[in-house]
Design goal:
Layout lengths: L6 E7 L6 H9 L6 E8 L5 H9 L5 E6 L4 H11 L4 E6 L3 E2 L3 H6 L6 E3 L2 E5 L5 E3 L4 E4 L3 H5 L2 H7 L5 E4 H6 L12 H10 L4 E4 L5 E5 L12 H16 L5 H16 L5 H13 L14 H11 L3 H16 L1
Helix pairs in contact: 1-2, 8-9, 9-10, 10-12
């Protein structure tokens, strides 16, 4: 018997007039037809609205909503308030999906969370396919399975996931509007707190465009503070403070902070000092750090070797540029 379950697809966008049509057409071309598409325009000032309305006016399954610019978390929450049916998918307005995207996830709808992969597409570079191995992960193994470098590439994003809308509604789950870093990760793991198992599928029908100038690519002056907020938020869910999973997140935050800085000596010095001042740094265990780069970062911070660290930092950027 053919499945006819209603699936809500929440599309969020801000000033994506050059991409939103391709995104919506990829949804329009889904093999699975019983979909409710909510397009949330987060205060666009370009011609996005006209593009979106041109599609909504020809297909009653597509619905356009506008809000003043409050950020992607607020836009997703707006969509959740309007969502109906049994399941929900999130798609960013500058991305697009393969025609079998919805029906592929629905094959595993008996699981409370289905997690797939995606293709990372960046102009001038070969696309990268990121996807999990096919398996079922039970609650007691969530931390061990997902708090590692490989899994975090796909588990911490809201894309390429089929959520059970009833669970979201029952527990009043929302995207955190107090941060614009890792808010999707906080949502995903908050959701996982209320389920017993996750189905991972080796499928990458989501196409994730990496665009210059988007929020995720912009340098941030408060990046370290946002990373600490993310770690603390996840700790309230898993109570993992100072264990190996906390250490993974903390070392990851250090790596992100150092790699995203400008190349000015002053910025490098301030970043190292900021991390050293954090009271949790002393709980990082060198012997449990994996990877040479992370070990070097740790030693630079621990011994306040700013000059040596800055030289290594500059040499790395020169080699990467070549």
């Amino acid at each position: 018997m053919r499945d006819n379950t209603l699936v809500t697809i929440i599309v969020t966008e801000h000033n994506k007039q050059n991409y939103i049509r391709k995104c919506l057409l990829s949804i329009l071309n889904q093999g699975y037809k019983n979909i409710n598409v909510l397009v949330i325009d987060d205060g666009s000032t370009d011609d996005s609205a006209e593009v979106i309305k041109s599609i909504c006016n020809h297909d009653t399954r597509f619905n356009y909503y506008y809000q003043e610019n409050r950020g992607v978390s607020s836009a997703r929450n707006y969509g959740l308030n309007k969502a109906k049916g049994k399941y929900v998918l999130f798609i960013d307005g500058d991305d697009f999906v393969d025609s079998d995207y919805v029906e592929t996830f629905l094959k595993y709808k008996d699981f409370d969370l289905v997690v797939g992969g995606y293709r990372r597409i960046e102009e001038g570079r070969k696309s990268i396919e990121i996807k999990p191995s096919e398996k079922v992960v039970f609650y007691e193994d969530f931390e061990n399975s997902f708090f590692n470098k490989e899994a975090f590439e796909y588990i911490g994003l809201p894309i390429s996931k089929l959520f059970n809308l009833k669970i979201i509604k029952e527990h009043n789950l929302k995207f955190d509007t107090n941060t614009d870093l890792g808010e999707d990760t906080i949502f995903d793991f908050s959701y996982m707190k209320y389920i017993s198992k996750v189905k991972l599928i080796s499928y990458s029908g989501y196409n994730n465009l990496i665009l210059p100038g988007t929020l995720s690519r912009k340098p941030r002056r408060n990046l370290w503070q946002l990373s600490v907020y993310l770690i603390d938020s996840l700790n309230t869910i898993f109570d993992f403070k100072y264990d190996e999973y906390w250490q993974f997140m903390y070392i990851r935050a250090i790596a992100i902070e150092i790699s995203s800085m400008s190349r000015k000596y002053r910025d490098f010095k301030n970043a190292i000092r900021l991390i050293r001042k954090n009271p949790d740094f002393k709980y990082v265990k060198y012997q449990k750090i994996n990877g040479t780069k992370d070990k070097i970062n740790y030693l630079i911070i621990k011994f306040n070797a700013i000059n040596v660290g800055y030289i290594l930092y500059c040499v790395k950027h020169i080699l990467v540029k070549r």
